Amino acid sequence: MPAGFPDFRLGSVLATSFTATLTERRGDALERIPVPQRLVDWLVVSGLDVGSCTDDQLALARELRESIHAAATAAATGEALPVAAVRVINDRSARGRAAAVLTPEGERRWRLGPDSALEDALGVIAADAIDILSGERDGKLALCASPTCRAAFFDTSQSRTRRWCDMGTCGNRHKKARFHRKNAVSP
Ligand SMILES: [Zn+2]
């Protein structure tokens, strides 16, 4: 990882892992893909090796990211999906031409076109977003309980009562704050 850039918050769901490249949206927002190369890095660790990325393509990716975030937030709170966001997600999905291929080991890989790798990768992410927004996948969209985060995440826990986008960051911070509050009060 190149020095000087914030690390990634990787989750197991591609679409919400992607929206987590911008964190603390309600606090001190932190952009984790500030330059095209960082988007390339994120895509590589997410199984989408695009090779390169331009400034314009980074802008396209961020537009998709914010559209997924807006739609997922609406879905999590039971509101109507924003029309503009749905249009962007559908556009990106329709333009992607990635092929899912099976390795001899039985794993899925994405084959991206040599001249359209970035667009194909965004198509895969958009299709993943459609999966979770449409209820095609087992789980429920929810918002992180942290007031400075409020990230949308996909809750696949049995009880559907997960509160944090990420236990290691938002969940842990909450636990520590509670510990400090408890210990500050003298009996
Ligand atoms: Zn969070």
TrEMBL record:
Question: By its UniProt entry, which SUPFAM superfamilies does this protein fall under?
Answer: Jann2411-like (SSF160904)
Report which superkingdom the organism of origin falls in: Bacteria
UniProt domain Zinc finger CGNR: residue ranges: 141-182
What's the protein here called? Zinc finger CGNR domain-containing protein
